[in-house]
Amino acid sequence: MADDILNLMPVRSGHFILESGYHANVWFNLDSLFVSPRGIAPFVTALSQRLGGYKPTAVCGPQHGGAFLAQAVAAELQLNFYYTLAQGGSRAHGLFAARYELPAGLKKQASNERFAIVDDVISAGSSVRATHKEMTDAGGEVVAVGSLVLLGTKASDYFATLGIPIEALAQRDFETWTPDRCLLCLRGEPLEDPRYS
To answer: What is the pLDDT of residues 112-149, one digit of tens each?
Structure first.
């Protein structure tokens, strides 16, 4: 199943800045991942089965891709669905500076939920970290994080310190650098923002 998932995600090579602020030399193109609900359905079912064991009452995903997957998982498990929206427009400076917020009308209801946070692909984990903060600030409890693909160990290391498990259908090594230690920057390779290239 891991190979099947990775085959759905074309990979580009280059010099990219991630939402977390880290730099990387590969980028997964996820634009077409949810075009065919039938094609992604086996993966939704497999991830739902893994997350269901944590007894969440709701699933939340960061907009866009994470929210699509979170809604599908919530439907599979017959749970409530929430989503968070990126705040601040352009990327904030610094590592893990991104902010995601619940729509105002969902905050009160979120205080009574046990959440599984879901994203399509997690690398450093910027959007799921920010979504976790929003859920707990709203009074909710996060019981698990789920993803189709987990890249590297930054996110799993972070959530392990919080005692929150991550479930992923596939894992892959993934090298990232802080801007001041980026090997590609040192070689003078131009930096791309993959959202606009």
So the answer is: 999 999 999 999 999 999 999 999 999 999 999 999 99
- Contacts for 39-44: CB closer than 8 Å, 24+ residues apart: 39/8, 40/8, 40/69, 40/72, 41/72, 42/1, 43/1, 43/4, 43/5, 43/148, 43/169, 44/69, 44/72, 44/73, 44/76
Q: Note whether 26 and 18 are within 8 A (CB).
A: no
**How far is residue 49 from each of residues 46, 76, 168, measured CA to CA in Å?**
5, 9, 11
Residue 105's CB: how many other CB atoms inside 10 A?
Answer: 7
Supply 17's token pair: 């800045």
d(CA 64, CA 83) in angstroms, rounded, equals 9
Question: CA 189, CA 184: separation in Å to the nearest integer?
Answer: 5
**Residue pLDDT, tens place only, 144-193:** 999 999 999 999 999 999 999 999 999 999 999 999 999 999 999 999 87
Backbone angles phi, psi at 97, to 5 degrees: -90, -5
How confident is the model at residue 158, as a pLDDT?
A: 97
Nearest to 47 by CA among 63, 26, 61: 61
